[in-house]
Design brief:
The chain is mainly α. The radius of gyration is 20 Å and the shape is elongated. 24% of the residues are buried. The protein has one domain. Helix 5 runs antiparallel to helix 6. 76% of the residues lie in helices and 0% in strands.
């Protein structure tokens, strides 16, 4: 796992002295570890959400430029893709946190949290690829290179659907089913 993606270790290293002392108390340490893992999970998902939202905004700009040029043959597909980006981004934003509290029905085991963090890091890589593809598409449209617009839209739709399918498996990782 790369240094920039290891939110858990970063959070652990930034604990205050008092927190470090309390972390040595039996029982509290496990609680603090779970809290750190949950917070890192939240940070990862927030990052995914922000990046997907950025890509969606770039696609809105693409849609507007295509609309201005009256390229109706791709407008419907791009509009659907923008809506799909919005739905997937909101799904990521509202996904459940990794560590269930003591009174929740489903408990998330600590070792499954580590698997989930690794899984989410792979999702970060996937989102970065999507963002890069959207930016390339936008650059082509800005340069008024519309020849590949239909293919780009189809490829982005398939890529986003694959990301969503992977993200949907996250619950299995949380529960330790996969």
């Amino acid at each position: 796992m790369s240094e920039k993606k290891d939110f858990y270790e970063k959070g652990k290293s930034q604990m205050r002295l008092g927190e470090r002392i309390l972390a040595e108390i039996p029982g509290f340490r496990g609680y603090k570890e779970k809290e750190l893992r949950r917070e890192s999970d939240k940070l990862i998902r927030n990052h995914l959400y922000r990046r997907l939202t950025e890509a969606k905004n770039d696609l809105r700009d693409v849609f507007q430029r295509l609309s201005d040029r009256r390229l109706f043959e791709v407008l419907t597909d791009v509009d659907r893709l923008v809506a799909k980006f919005d739905r997937v981004a909101e799904k990521v934003n509202h996904a459940s946190y990794g560590y269930a509290g003591f009174f929740n029905i489903v408990k998330v085991k600590e070792e499954n949290l580590d698997k989930m963090i690794d899984f989410d890091n792979r999702l970060i890589d996937d989102v970065e690829k999507i963002v890069k593809e959207v930016k390339s598409f936008k650059e082509e449209v800005v340069k008024q290179e519309f020849g590949k617009a239909k293919e780009r839209t189809q490829h982005l739709t398939e890529t986003l659907e694959a990301f969503e399918d992977t993200f949907d498996k996250r619950e299995e990782v949380i529960l330790g089913v996969n």
